[in-house]
Amino acid sequence: MKLTPLVAACAACVAFASHAETQLTVVNFGGANGNAQKVAYFGPFEKATGNKVVGVEYNGEQAKIKAMVEAKKVTWDVVEVESPDVARGCDEGLFEKLDYSKIGNKADFQPAAIHECGIGTFVWSTVMAYNGDKLKTAPTTWADFWDVKKFPGKRAMRKGARYNIEFALMADGVPVADVYKVLKTKEGADRAFKKLTELKPNIQWWEAGAQPPQFLVAGDVVMTTAYNGRIDAAQREGKNLKITWTGGIYDLDYWVMPKGTPNKDVALKFIAMASDTDAQAEYAKNIAYGPTNKKALAKLDAKVLGGLPTAPANAKTALQFNVGFWADQGETLEKRFTAWAAQ
Amino acid sequence: MTTTPITAIPGNLAVQLRRSQRRKKTFAISLTLPLLVFLLAFFIVPIGALLMRAIENPEVASTLSRTVAVLKAWDRTSAPPDTAYAAVIADLADISEQSDAGGLARRLNSEIAGGRSLVMSTYRALPFEANLSSAQVKARMLALDPRWEELGYWQAIAKNGSRWTPDYLLTAVDLKRDVQGNIVPVDAESAAFFNILIRTFSISAIVTLAALLLGYPLAYWLSTLSARQANILMILVLVPFWTSVLVRSAAWIVLLQNNGLVNRALLELGLISAPLPLLFNRLGVIIAMVHILLPFMILPLYSVMKSVPPTYLRAAVSLGSSPLAAFFRVYMPQTYPGMGAGGLLVFILSIGYYVTPALLGGADDQMLSYYVAQYTNVTVNWGMACALGAVLLSATLVLYALYRRIVKSELSLG
User: Fold this and answer.
1) What ipTM was reported for this prediction?
2) Domain A124-251+315-342, what fold?
3) Which secondary-structure segment (H or E) carries A82?
4) Which A residues 21-60 touch B at CB under 8 Å?
5) Which residues of chain A lie closer than 8 angstroms to B380, CB-CB?
């Protein structure tokens, strides 16, 4: 048969190829952030190592990782998780411990980025946003957000307690530095929910990060809480949406490896590459999330820097999300929010 | 004389008959066996596992066994004995897998906020120096974290010492066990689930009623048309039925938003002066759910109506009944099975609705399944998720039993 050598050659090729490259499954939250990661991390990693990266989107459900690890059938190699999930998942043994000698110098990163089970990959912020075409005077504080006389109309907030009760306390006059100190006490939590009740008839709740910019553009709400990257993405599309950075809550997202991933070495290589200076600078150019690698900041021009949550002007009045507080109080407060919403 | 064969033959026949019947029965059973196995593996077992998870409570019992034993004698109101402190440290030091410590921390944290950091910080600080007395261990623990003096954490440990707990199920109906184990209502500020259960059933009931009111005339009209026309119109019912729920929910956002099609049309007609709030509230959820579930009402109604002979209606009218009375007294009773089947189908489907309220509802329009998802995915408290599922399951079964009681007939889907 004429075909036989061809088939054999093909088979050899396939065998060789499958031997040489690993298919790495990297899981993120999709959206504008997912696209930026594709440009800055996935593409260059594939080019540099010859491995294939398959991007998967999820919605932050740690339950999926837990189910995989418990069933010992781990199909996700690298996962982007939010900060409370790094601590919680690490406690419960869901993640591999990171070997920092293979990633880089710990001192190059922001202190908050270093965790035994994960490394911070970007800084993002939950901020106040509004439509510059519709609102002539800019709201500057959370008290303005609560002021329905000065700014009549609906406000959109994330469905849940997280961030909202911090904003409520700031609107009630608690200084940024004291928010979590006040919130730790029973009276502080009462105060936050009482303040939230004031605004309740004017709140339109959002569920997904893509919704707040849509609400603003459609004119359904005058102001909203939003992830700064989503507003940035809408700005890139030419929408005149604006951010008020005062009292924004910034936090990190981390790369982790689910325990028992079969591609641990390649996964670690990916994390190392996604943490290096050039890749992180490239990422920040594609979406306004701040790099965790301090050296990457030097590679960005003033315009890009100005839009990042880590820019000094933006970070000056911001609140750092308190992971420990939410790991302890989250379940109780979310349940209280559910009861509060039903009242 | 002939008596023996006569009695013998029927006896023989009876045996043969029984044997052949048994063979038939075995054959019939073996035909249904794949289905039975399937049901067992993919329906009964998962539901059983769900119910088990709702009462399972292994975290404390398996890791803190010595502490639990010491705390048995404790009155739960005074300070715990020093030996309890020593027992906690001994137990924690014996946990070899960090995931077990994490599980314990999670369990205690869902019982009392702060339990997670208390357990994990202590676990990380181990081991202590050898040969400490109980009092010394206590002093070390208090130096490490003064919260070890608070009774709440000890009460949580003592309360969860057994492998099985009614706590998740109690929480799912807004009850709890107090320190001494008596069942009491939870504080007003965390009472949520009973309201949510009522909300779930009331939304489902409204949706079912609206679907019946809208679907009945349409199904009736369809049943009076010729087969050709009915088929064409049926496609209009079926095309949305085959479209994804997510897509249809998203489409309603486009239609109902402030400057969406509906509001803009009403504004331009001068019927309203400001846009109506149709979205992110109860109304939006109900509108979209009725639309999505309408085919489940129309199809059973249509198939029952097709089987009702039109001659009855004509006979009633020819005997002197007014057309309206004939419709309500002669025609409608014959469609009760369709109304029952359609109503039950829509009601049971809407009880479990998740995506539509999540996308189109506000914070107080979420149904029970939203919280099942939240406890499964976000909080990762699977006991609580299973308990809510169990409550939903049993409430549905009770309603179905009531339905059977009232309708007194088997469910017929046409």
Assistant:
1) 0.85
2) D-Maltodextrin-Binding Protein; domain 2 (3.40.190)
3) strand A78-82
4) 59-60
5) 62-63, 66, 88
